[in-house]
């Protein structure tokens, strides 16, 4: 398979949403541009609106929940937008934005499936057709609103109906996949969804217009597991030297997980839609991905409390060329045998083969061994 990455995260705000937003703002009438616009919540769409409105000299106000992180708040202000903190949830901020818009004549922008917005997003498909000759398939992430997918599909199918368009969603939030199955908009996946990872997917509901376009133009919908997505994010860091978010990694995750065997030997474009993730979440995702990739493990053993017992364990890890990341030594616990200490270690390994070898070695030496990483 020949894979071509469409790196939409290289936009200034790190997201493909800039395409639709720029076209949408440019199409506004002059009197509305003078009055200004207002947008709510922290998401890729809002960032794109804040950035391009300032560039087009359109007054812009962004309403944010009060619990938004300071770095994100500073980013919107650096774009040049006026930022107001209001409410404890995204819904509170959205309702306040609508209220201010009605009182002051602002245009309240919300991500939807308007033709103007979808046309802007569809320029991804036009570029793919021009940039990759003899393209066989395009893999596109389907967020909660699915505008990038249907916009790209409309452009691609218009230029070459033989190109296959494949949409990808998280297994925890298969909104479009379920909606296509029941031929109506599915609802409420929040009880099974990781809000920190998939928050941008969940903030926007699927539109009826988008659903009908997907039925006509999207050839296949699949869902990817969280662990496959995290490993794909790790591969981006290792091979592309960039940090993408869950939406950005989704297309590659489907390929690496072996979910698209029909594309073997084909020329495939993967839309890498965005790379907006806060630093603390990046660290959590990398650590978890290393565990899933069998390159980081955590274990506990009981050792004797005599001189040299700890040294024997550390020397064994050194002989196995294992990197020790963290160690915790506990002497007092009702779960520890008399004259014993419990040691917990976090180690980093080269690959799955070294991981398996270490597990066998430790099992032979320490009957009390427990693995704690899964």
UniProtKB/TrEMBL annotation:
A GO term for molecular function: L-serine ammonia-lyase activity
Alphabetically ordered keywords of this record: Lyase, Pyridoxal phosphate
Range of residues in the leader sequence: none
Superkingdom field: Eukaryota
UniProt-listed InterPro entries: Ser/Thr_Dehydratase, TrpB-like_PALP, TrpB-like_PALP_sf
Coiled coil region boundaries: none
Protein name: L-serine deaminase
Cofactors named for this entry: pyridoxal 5'-phosphate
Native source species: Ameiurus melas
Gene3D superfamilies per UniProt: 3.40.50.1100
Domain Tryptophan synthase beta chain-like PALP: 2-272
Alphabetical GO biological process terms: isoleucine biosynthetic process; L-serine catabolic process; L-threonine catabolic process
Pfam families (UniProt xref): PALP (PF00291)
TM helices/strands, residue ranges: none
Entry keyword annotation includes Transport: no
